[in-house]
Design brief:
There is one protein chain. The protein is α/β, with parallel strands linked by helices and about 200 residues long. The chain contains 5 helices and 8 strands, in the order βαβαββββαβαβα. The strands form 2 sheets. It has a 4-stranded mixed beta sheet. It has a 4-stranded mixed beta sheet with strand order 5-8-6-7, with helices on one face. Strand 6, helix 3 and strand 7 form a beta-alpha-beta unit. It is globular and about 50 Å long.
Length: about 200
């Protein structure tokens, strides 16, 4: 998983650069700082066309933050690595080291309340190299890993890996809520880091 942060200093003025960079670098999660636009003015369509889910928190007179989220999935059963089925939501924060507890709690609260789904925090996936390397909450860089078991959204875990539209839509409700909860705490984290 590749997580990046960019102090973009005005997203509308740099949308072409942002789109080019997203296509070239293909990060999984991007946090944009100083977007300098209200939510309604954010160039959402250009970014969503690249497959990202967008959550913004832009405020008039403030620089704002944005979270771009590209979720990963993994086979539900990997017998050569471990026994049994993976939980649907696999959240990793290296034992709470890579992000502020508010971010971890937002993800865990949504995942654990998602009816019909299973979840774990720092289970088999405690945060990969990127999460552990870049997650430095004391500097304002928060990283969290999320692996989704494929049977939560696919019709089959074999070629051609077809998406099950009904499963995917049920899952999107929870992913959207997770992003909204993280978005809700982001402004406070931004202020805490700048003190």
């Amino acid at each position: 998983m590749k997580i990046a942060t960019w102090n973009i200093n005005g997203v509308k003025a740099r949308i072409e650069n942002l789109v080019h960079w997203l296509k070239d670098s293909q990060p999984d999660i991007v946090c944009l700082q100083e977007i300098k636009t209200v939510d309604e003015g954010f160039p959402r369509a250009e970014i969503e066309a690249l497959g990202y889910h967008v959550e913004t928190h832009g405020q008039k007179g403030f620089n704002g933050v944005a979270i771009l989220f590209d979720c990963h999935s993994i086979r539900s059963h990997i017998p050569f690595l471990f026994d049994g089925k993976l939980p649907d939501f696999n959240i990793g924060t290296a034992g709470g080291v890579t992000c502020d507890p508010q971010i971890e709690n937002a993800a865990v609260d949504v995942a654990s309340a998602a009816a019909g789904y299973t979840s774990v925090l720092n289970g088999r996936f405690t945060g990969g190299w990127t999460t552990r390397h870049y997650g430095q909450p004391e500097t304002g860089v928060h990283a969290i890993q999320l692996e989704l078991a494929q049977d939560s959204h696919l019709a089959s875990e074999s070629v051609p890996y077809d998406l099950d539209p009904d499963k995917a839509e049920r899952l999107r409700v929870h992913l959207r809520e997770m992003l909204k909860r993280i978005e809700a705490v982001a402004p406070d984290l931004n202020r805490e880091t700048s003190r």
